[in-house]
Write a structure and sequence with these properties.
The complex is a heterodimer. By secondary structure, chain A is α/β, with parallel strands linked by helices. Chain A is built from 8 helices and 8 strands, in the order αβαβαβααβββαβαβα. Helix content of chain B is about 40%, strand content about 15%. Classes of the chains: A alpha/beta, B alpha/beta.
C-alpha cells in the first residue's frame, strides 16, 4: 500500500490524457473506458481514432488488445480509471502473456468512482506501479509525470503509465455521439 | 474417400475457412483440440484470455476495426460475459462469432454443468440469436455461414455446441 496522495497539485484527468497522447509522434488509437475516461478523452480532443467503449467498466484494456492485434503497425493506448482497471485486472495477465508490442495502458488514478457520486474506490491506496511491474516488469511501468516523448519512445511495450490525477468536482460533458456515429467514424479511421 | 477427422479438427477447419483476423478464448474440454490447433495456426493469432469477459472485449476491438473475430468459451463463461456482450457487442452492432460449448446436455450430464445450461437458456437466449449444433457433427461451412449471418444482421451471433445422444433432435 502506498501513502495517501495529496491531490492539490495533481493534473486533471483531461490534462493527463492529453499529455499521454502527446507522448506519441503519431496520434495513437485511444481506447477509453466507459463514462469518465471516455468523457474526458473527448473533452481532451475528439479524434476519429478515439474508440469510446460503452461498457462495462474495465473493458477498454481488452478492447484495446483486440485492436492492437489487428493493427500491429499502429500504436494503441488504452485509458482506464483505477476503479475500472480493478474490474478487469485479469486483462493485465492476458496482455502480459501476449507480449503485445504496440499496446500501452494509461491508468488515471483519482481514487474515486467519479461517475458514481465520487464514492471512494477500493484501490485508493494501491501502489499501481507495483501492480503493473508484477505483470509487465519494472522498465515497462512508468509515471506520466516522469515521461518525455524521448523517454517514452524507449519504453518497451506492453507498458503501463500511471497518472495520479485530481478528482474532478464535475463529470465530463456528455459524449453527444450515438453508438452508430462512434462505430462509423472509428471504422473509417481504423480500416486496414 | 472422405477425410476422417475429430470434431475439434473439423471446427478448426471451419474457423480457418472464415479467415478471421483473430481468435480468442478460454479453454473448455470440448474446445481444447480446436484451441491447440488455433494456437499453432500461422494464419491468425489466438489470444488466450484469463477470463471470458475479456474475450468479448478483444472481439469487439477487432470488430470495431472491421475485422472478423471469433470467441470460444463455455456456457458458464458466456454467462460471465453478458454485460460486455450487451453493452459493447449488441450496443455497437458488432458482427463477431461466439462459439459456446453448452455443457449439461442430456448426453453430457455432469452435475456441476446442469445449472450452467439452465442459466444459459434463461439468460442468453432471450437477448441474442443462438443457433444450436451437435458438436460431433458440425457442418463444414458453419463458421463462414455464421459470419455471413452476423454481418447481415449487424450483431454478434452465438453458436451453441453440445454433445448429443444418437438421433437426438436439435433443441
Amino acid at each position: 500500500m502506498s501513502n495517501p496522495v495529496s491531490t492539490s497539485n495533481l493534473p486533471s484527468q483531461k490534462d493527463a490524457i492529453a499529455a499521454a497522447i502527446a507522448l506519441y509522434p503519431k496520434r495513437p488509437f485511444a481506447v477509453s473506458d466507459v463514462a469518465s475516461q471516455s468523457g474526458w478523452l473527448k473533452a481532451a480532443g475528439h479524434d476519429p481514432r478515439n474508440l469510446y467503449v460503452s461498457g462495462p467498466m474495465g473493458l477498454a484494456t481488452s478492447v484495446a488488445l483486440g485492436l492492437a492485434a489487428c493493427r500491429p503497425n499502429e500504436q494503441v493506448l488504452a485509458i482506464a480509471g483505477d476503479g475500472a482497471l480493478a474490474m478487469n485486472l485479469t486483462s493485465l495477465a492476458t496482455i502480459a502473456g501476449m507480449k503485445t508490442q504496440n499496446l500501452a495502458i494509461l491508468l488515471v488514478d483519482n481514487r474515486v468512482y467519479e461517475f458514481t457520486a465520487s464514492v471512494q474506490s477500493p484501490t485508493r491506496d494501491l501502489d499501481w506501479l507495483a501492480v503493473g511491474r508484477a505483470f509487465f516488469g519494472e522498465g515497462q511501468c512508468v509515471r506520466l509525470s516522469e515521461l518525455t516523448p524521448e523517454k517514452w519512445a524507449g519504453v518497451k511495450r506492453p507498458a503501463l503509465i500511471v497518472a495520479d490525477v485530481a478528482p474532478s468536482a464535475a463529470k465530463p460533458p456528455p459524449l453527444g455521439l450515438t453508438p452508430a456515429m462512434i462505430r462509423a467514424e472509428f471504422l473509417g479511421a481504423s480500416r486496414g | 474417400m472422405a477425410e476422417t477427422s475429430s470434431g475439434g479438427d473439423r471446427l478448426f477447419r471451419s474457423i480457418a475457412a472464415a479467415k478471421p483476423k483473430l481468435v480468442t478464448g478460454v479453454p473448455d474440454g470440448m474446445l481444447a483440440e480446436t484451441i491447440k490447433l488455433c494456437e499453432e495456426s500461422p494464419d491468425f493469432p489466438y489470444i488466450a484470455c484469463a477470463r471470458e469477459e475479456e474475450c468479448i472485449g478483444v472481439a469487439c476491438g477487432a470488430a470495431m476495426a472491421g475485422e472478423r473475430a471469433i470467441v470460444m468459451v463455455q456456457n458458464a463463461g458466456m454467462l460471465n460475459s453478458l454485460g460486455a456482450f450487451a453493452t459493447m457487442g449488441l450496443r455497437y452492432g458488432l458482427p463477431f462469432v461466439v462459439i459456446v460449448t453448452n455443457r449439461g446436455a442430456l448426453a453430457d450430464p455432469n452435475g456441476y454443468d446442469i445449472e450452467k445450461r439452465e442459466a444459459f437458456d434463461a439468460g442468453v437466449r432471450p437477448m441474442a440469436r443462438v443457433f444450436d449444433f451437435d458438436a460431433g457433427n458440425l457442418p463444414d461451412d458453419l463458421i463462414p455461414a455464421a459470419f455471413k449471418w452476423a454481418e447481415a444482421a449487424r450483431k454478434p451471433v452465438i453458436l451453441a455446441l453440445e454433445k448429443r445422444l444418437g438421433g437426438e433432435a436439435a433443441p
